[in-house]
Design a protein that fits this description.
Blueprint: H1 2-7, H2 11-16, H3 28-49, H4 57-77, H5 81-105, H6 113-116, E1 121-124, E2 127-130, H7 141-157, H8 159-167, H9 171-197
Antiparallel strand pairs: 1-2
Helix pairs in contact: 4-5, 5-7, 5-8, 7-9, 8-9
Length: 200
């Protein structure tokens, strides 16, 4: 109600997401739909907050340990500090963090309002994912989630061998190659994700 007052709309209009010209004549059926929508919106966060995919914990721990061992091994090999700390470590930390979310906490199903509306921003607590041209719903989420999990695994584990090879390239070519690798790192998520999102 306070939010509706600040926005200058009625509670019904806020729940419906549209302006209602004459709210006094709203039908009983539509009023029931509004109430049901409000109930579903209030129930969904409770379901999300209680989930934890314990079955995926060994996979996440394994990829984290592999990433740490790879980083230490590259230090032992004498790779340059620039390669190790400005590029590889950052990507590995991001990979492990994203893997923790996608493997352990990401929902297997989306709340019902994603199916009822065209939403191109996935929001789950502090995690936000915006994909222009992609609308998240339960028809494509079963394709999107595996892509995110595979990408986070590769980002954690495959970065070290790639950057080891880049470290062998001399001079300015190494900078160009590192920049190319970073671009491919991002495209490796967004291109497969866009393709998977269209598989309905």
């Amino acid at each position: 109600m306070p939010l509706a007052q600040v926005l200058g709309v009625t509670v019904t209009e806020l729940l419906e997401g549209e302006e209602i010209e004459n709210e006094e004549t709203i039908s009983a059926e539509r009023a029931d739909q509004v109430v049901q929508k409000a109930i579903s919106l209030s129930e969904n966060p409770t379901v999300r907050s209680s989930r934890f995919h314990k079955k995926n914990l060994p996979a996440w721990l394994a990829m984290t340990i592999i990433a740490v061992v790879e980083f230490l091994f590259m230090m032992w090999l004498g790779c340059s500090a620039i390669t190790l700390f400005s590029s590889l470590l950052t990507l590995q930390i991001l990979g492990v963090m994203f893997a923790a979310y996608f493997w352990l906490f990401a929902p297997e199903r989306l709340p019902s309002y994603y199916d009822e509306n065209r939403i191109n921003v996935f929001v789950d607590g502090i995690f936000h994912m915006n994909m222009p041209g992609v609308y998240f719903n339960n028809r494509n989420w079963s394709h999107i989630l595996p892509v995110c999990r595979i990408w986070s695994l590769l980002a954690s584990v495959a970065s070290a061998p790639v950057f080891y090879l880049l470290d062998q390239i001399p001079g300015k070519l190494q900078y160009i190659s590192t920049l190319t690798a970073l671009i491919l790192y991002l495209l490796g998520l967004f291109i497969p994700l866009s393709y998977a999102a269209k598989k309905i």
